[in-house]
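Form 12-C: Joint structure prediction
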Amino acid sequence: MKISLFVPCFIDQYYPGAGIGMVRILEKLGHTVEYPESQTCCGQPAFNSGYWDEARSVAVTMLDAFRDAEVVVGCSGSCGARLKVFYPELFHGHAREAEAKALAAKTHELSSFLVNVLGVGDLGASFPAKATFHDGCHGLRELGIKQEPRELLKHVRGLELVEMKEAETCCGFGGTFAVKFPEISTAMGEVKCASILETGAELVISNDSSCLMQIQGLFDRQGNKIKSMHLAEVLAHF
Amino acid sequence: MSTESVQFHHDADRLTHDLRHRALIQKALGGYYVKRDEQKAKYTDWQQARVSAAAAKYEAVNHLDKYLVELSDKLEARGTKVFWAADGPEAADYIASVARNAGVKRIIKSKTMTGEEIHLPQALEKAGLEVVESDLGEFIVQLREEPPYHIVFPSMHLTRGEIDDTFQKKLGSAHADTPEELTMIARNVMRRKYCEADMGISGANFAVAETGHISITENEGNARLSTSLPKVLVSIVGIEKVVPKLDDLAVLLPMLATAGAGQNMTCYNTLLGGPRQPGETDGPREFHVVLLDNRRTALLADAEQRDALHCIRCGACLNVCPIFKNIGGHSYGTTYQGPIGSVITPHLRGLQSWKHLSFSSSLCGACAEACPVKIDLHHHLLQNRRNAIAEKPAWWEKPIFAGFAWFMRRPALYRLAAPLLRIGGPLLHVIRGQFFDPVRLWTATRDLPPAPPQSFKEYWRARHAKR
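Section 2 - Result
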């Protein structure tokens, strides 16, 4: 299958390992991977801040970038949900509504694509660590992804996965919310970090790097040694 | 920023640093989660039950014109007086006039958030009437002159010790240790008030159009006493409380109990059908139902967010909301706290004054998932944000997002971001958290990740160059 990669802007800038992991995994499975270089940002910061016209003008760049793609696979539940759930709403009644709907239909989040479309479980990865998984809210609730990452992690050799208390509670990142309401965002992050610490895990894994930026940012500031990794990086450890 | 927004930031910031508050609320809600999940597990299909409950409310809310008239006709047929109030002052004036005409001096009230919404107790006190709250939690916050902290658990923010202090100070009671002792203190005060009161005021959980019944659900028996002992009874009912059929309660009552308090059913479920009928020996001699709009029709007119009128005020969205759990109910400054309050308050009290509540969310969606009547809560927060910005964008923010969009539309320019980040990143680290740090709102409490040696785009280009 020819797969077009969707690498959200902050993963491109801050967490390229997640994108590279995705390339390695999909190529290992024998697929052809392409990366439309004209992609930038899905427009989520503007959309969530209420600036829908601005968000739409950015989203058009993405519609153009993926116009000819057969299948689009991205490594963020949140930005994936943007394309899959919110683009049809953003373009509702606009000239390119049909294209937005078409992009939504052919877009997948990585873990969901691997498990539900390709039917893969074991990627042959090995990663000896005690880890816990954090469900990014948009992946979990907008896209309904819960078991897929766990199914994939179950097969990683040496990885012991422990569930944290209230795994489905938000880490407090929330995009611009994190800087518009930093006190609330930080308090939410502290609660999440406490749940992670309680598990005794040395590693926190998520399918959303934005959540990990919040969690790691707090752990680093606290001087805590817990590390975070994107799901794709762990799965690409073969 | 509106004064409401300034106050919100101030109160929310204070509460997020109050670790005692955080632990108290976490513990209280931890108990609720266990009980709620036990009860949910008893449903054959909770999701299907949500669909049925939402369908009943959808039918009612989308045909309010029909069901409200039916409700009113059925109520009047048994001698109830129905008053249609456009807003709070109209409702309060009417109730005060009913009290005046019947020579009422003392009122016993059972918990009504609709009454809180229009500041009914305060309005009636101003009219010279004594108003005593009979719900234990509400009674406690009334003594403390605080608004309810939570739409279902009004005093969940208080410890037993604080309640004891309040009782000693306000009621002159002796020191009490146990919940039973504290309850007895309140009970002794209230029993007397029930007998003395000449008017009872209640809210409504549902109003059944088919049969003309006001449905009240409670755990303490206080609503039953408040609605049956005094000679005059007034029920204040938001117009969205109407449901088409009595059978609708078969799904709505257990769901309200489960979602709201982790109960199978609430202890007391009462249907009020009218005043004392000829030949009956008890019940109020006068029964008035006040149907309150108070801008609910404005929400009804918004097709996108009309389902917010499905709300059965169970509080489930508050209980799962990580914002609520960290800032507490009082920080909202609204009658309805948590996600539902953040959605509807801008409609009920003005978008520009209350839009900050819609922005104060990580949009995690736990609320919408918990809602027993399937209100699309977190998406409505997004719509409120869009509407607020379309109406009046922030002068400083509009150019930022215009610039953001301009930049992101130019992939060639975007490509320069990675090298710039590599230069700027270490510099940012040096000025971290200081006044001229452009991202200090992040770095005040959190570290930023170091910029990687290569962006994904650069990796991809390098890989292609090799091939």
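Section 3 - Comments
Residues 19-40 of chain B form the longest helix (22 residues). Chain B has a mean pLDDT of 96.
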